[in-house]
Structure formats: structure tokens, C-alpha cells
Amino acid sequence: MKIERLGQDKIRIFLTFDDLSERGIQKDDMWQEIPKVHELFTEMMDQAYSELGFDATGPLAVEVFALPAQGMVVIVTRGKYDQQRYGSGAEDELPEEVYEMEVTLETSDSIVYAFNDFEVLIEAAHMLHDHVTNAGKLYHYKGKWILYLEPDEVEESKHAALIALLAEFGEGTSVTPAVLEEYGKVVMPEQAVEVLCTHFSRQG
């Protein structure tokens, strides 16, 4: 489980499928009101508080993005107390656990992997070339190279093989396309795998 702060009142939590299975949670459970999910959410908020000092009391908007290849991204935005609802008394009179969770769910079949080293990315591209050619967008974001594959660019039957291969070289990332477009730099807007293989040869 990785937690990062996106703003004063906003955090992002990246859950791998291992994080979920360790707790006996299926992907489809995430938007159901069941004790296991509530326990997981409490655990996430405890960790967010201990790592980032993020206080999760009060109304929370929770967005869950399902990434079939890597796991789930949970974005938690803290709202403000409704003074009329809780009265204008002192803060210690407020209920302790006010998880007013407003959950929205989005699924994405995109395959997104981050690479620290450009040479490693080149090696991965050459390995991918047998599986995909006219696919991929390459971004540079926060010092990493991000390879983004659209689901319709890749045959569904090849997804598992591609993910296994990419996982050897890179790291699954929870960055969404919208964030990459806004904050990242587009290095290769299309056919990134083909372009990398054409212009860069493998080392060794």
C-alpha cells in the first residue's frame, strides 16, 4: 500500500491486488458496504495519518479507480464539517469516526508502467516489440519515463503476457492519463514501442 499527498485535503492510495487478497477482499467488494472493506479503509486512514499526518475525520469523498493490471487507486478528499449538522459546539463534541464516504468508481483497462532508467525502457520496448507495434505513448513525469498503453491498442489475450513482461523491467503506476496530460511531458505521442525500437538499440 502506497500513500501520497496530492494536496492539503487530498491523498492518493495505491493498493495492489496482493494488498487486497491478503485481506480477503475481491476487486468487486471495494464498492460494497461490508466489514472487510470498512476495516481496510480504517487501516488506510490510520496509515495516512501516521505517514502524512492526514486527519480523516469529517466528510470524505472517495474515488476508486480500478486498474486491472496493477490494482486500485483510491483518492480521498477531505470535506469540511457541516456546522448545522453537528452544531457549533467545540470540536471534541464531534463524533469520532465520521466517515461520510461518497464513493465513486471508475475502471480503466489501461496498462501504465514507470521506468527509472531510459536504457531499461529501451530493453523493455524491444521485448514488447514482438507483442505490440503500433501502440504506446511515452511521457516523462516526476523524473520517470511512463509508458502508457491504451486497452484498444493491445489484444486482450496478450494483456497478461505484456503485464508480466513490463513488471520485469518497470513498476506499475497509479498515475492517470489526465494527470500525465496535465503535469507530464509527452515525449512520444504515438507508437512509442515502435519508435523506441527504431531509434534506440539494445545495450549489450
TrEMBL record:
Cited InterPro entries: MecA_C_sf, Neg-reg_MecA
A Pfam family that the UniProt record links to this protein: MecA
Family: Belongs to the MecA family.
Designated name of the protein: Genetic competence negative regulator
Organism: Paenibacillus lacisoli
